From TrEMBL:
The organism of origin for this protein: Chitinophaga arvensicola
Pfam families listed in its UniProt record: MFS_1
Major facilitator superfamily (MFS) profile domain span: 19-468
InterPro entries per UniProt: MFS (IPR011701), MFS_dom (IPR020846), MFS_trans_sf (IPR036259)
Record PROSITE patterns: MFS
Key word Transmembrane present: yes
Protein name, UniProt field: Drug resistance transporter, EmrB/QacA subfamily
Subcellular location: Membrane
Length: 468
């Protein structure tokens, strides 16, 4: 399979670190938009008088659109040039953000969020492949991947803070709309910077699009996520079970179709030969479970702070700023020292996050928690996730040939976003179901924490297979 690596354009020199700062705006902004909704969910629910399932769909629809079209977005960058697609994706993201901000019904908001996720899917994959192309030195590339991981984590916590600020600001009557409208100036600025400071990658017109694969995968993942969300709300009627069964059948058909295309060298959506690389498999499985925990944890703890501890949105958002500081410090330290300490450092990171969950089981009882109860838990979690997140992409790409970097980055990002959607659907669904049925927010939170600890134990076991 050809890539754009052979036609990378160097007609004018642009410092790769300046270019990196610009292209990292895409994952930063798109991840902010995942988490900025979390703090705002009670306000959105009250405005539209919606169900818990609809609330989950506001977040999950964005992640679903994001995950399903990531690989297609990567291929589109190969075909038209990554700079062009990067800017076009930012433009679409800005427009769909406006659609979310002016939504007049819950259904319109969910559809707009889905389209916003699709726009993000055409933007973010260009970032990973441009890192691969811009940084030929393994040491510089590892630092760039680490900064990419930092951007993801920073966006997660910054989103929580901004969500709390805008909801509490009352700058407009329906203050929840600001969480989407704020993307308009940032999107325009990012487009202008990309126009001047991002090098075009060239075009590979030999790239082909696996349209049947896109359709099958879209149906399969949609039929997997939707019944999980609705099932917990409606008590698992028969149609939800049937949809899940159909989803797994479609996933089987998708794998068979990818195998058939690969045998005939017809550019499958997911090249199955990537999974012959052991480090890639380790990275993918680790990402699946880690992001299942991380995204759902931030979703759940935001709800728990506001409903269990009766915090105002701005107060809850401020607590997440205190989680960001150790995250950033740990990320910077991890980027410099991960190679020295190897995979054991990542396992220590998992232990820190599990320790945070154990402390939360102890201190987060009742209807009130003091800063001395909350801050140690958030600081420890932020430190653990900061050590782990920047290195997961490096694990997946350790032994990846440059010619396969584009395809691998697309698969990695797809799994990352789908893991987030699945985590919110499963773990978020468990929390909301127990909170609604029992009226006991601590019971719901405790159950979700135990599930998350199980996820992190799986990550530790999987990472133990890596001999580095």
């Amino acid at each position: 399979m050809k890539t754009d690596q052979s036609v990378y354009i160097r007609s004018t020199y642009i410092n790769p670190w300046i270019s990196l700062a610009v292209i990292l705006l895409a994952p930063l902004i798109t991840v902010i938009d995942v988490f900025i909704v979390n703090i705002s969910t009670p306000a959105i629910k009250n405005y539209f008088h919606s169900s818990d399932a609809a609330l989950e769909l506001v977040l999950a629809s964005y992640l679903l659109g994001y995950s399903v079209f990531l690989i297609t977005g990567s291929r589109t960058g190969d075909y038209f040039g990554k700079k062009k697609v990067f800017i076009a994706g930012l433009a679409a993201f800005t427009i769909t953000s406006a659609m979310c901000g002016f939504a007049t019904s819950m259904e319109m908001l969910i559809v707009s969020r889905l389209l916003q996720g699709v726009a993000a899917a055409f933007t973010v994959p260009q970032t990973i492949t441009l890192i691969q192309l811009n940084f030929q030195s393994p040491a510089d590339r590892d630092k760039a991947y680490g900064l990419y991981g930092m951007a993801l984590g920073t966006g997660a916590t910054l989103g929580q803070f901004l969500g709390g600020y805008f909801i509490s600001s009352h700058l407009i009557t329906d203050s929840w709309r600001l969480i989407f409208l704020v993307n308009l100036p940032f999107g325009i600025i990012a487009m202008l910077l990309a126009y001047f400071f991002v090098q075009e990658s060239g075009q590979n017109k030999a790239t082909r699009f696996d349209v049947p694969g896109i359709i099958i995968l879209t149906l399969a993942l949609s039929l997997l996520i939707y019944p999980i969300i609705q099932g917990t709300e409606l008590g698992w009627p028969a149609w939800t079970v049937v949809m899940l069964a159909v989803a797994f059948v479609l996933l089987g058909i998708f794998i068979a179709w990818q195998y058939w295309l690969g045998k005939r060298q017809r550019d499958p959506l997911v090249p199955l030969e990537l999974f012959r690389i052991s480090s890639f498999n380790t990275g993918i499985v680790s990402v699946l479970f880690f992001f299942g925990v991380n995204t759902s944890y931030i979703f759940i703890v935001a709800l728990y702070f506001q409903n269990g501890f009766h915090m105002q949105p701005f107060t809850a958002g401020n607590y997440f700023v205190m989680q960001t500081i150790p995250f950033l410090l740990a990320s910077l330290w991890s980027i410099k020292n991960a190679a020295k300490y190897g995979i054991r450092l990542l396992q220590v990171a998992c232990i820190l996050m599990i320790l945070s969950f154990i402390l939360q089981l102890v201190f987060f009882r009742g209807n009130v928690a003091t800063p001395s109860d909350i801050l140690p838990c958030l600081i420890i979690y932020g430190s653990g996730s900061g050590l782990l997140m920047p290195s997961l992409l490096k694990v997946a790409m350790w032994d990846m040939p440059p010619a396969k970097a584009g395809a691998a980055s697309g698969v990695y990002s797809t799994v990352q976003q789908f893991a987030s959607a699945l985590g919110v659907s499963i773990l978020g669904g468990i929390f909301l179901y127990l909170a609604r049925s029992s009226g006991n927010f601590y019971l719901a939170y405790k159950t979700a924490l135990f599930c998350m600890m199980g996820y992190l134990l799986i990550v530790m076991v999987v990472l133990n297979r890596v001999k580095r």
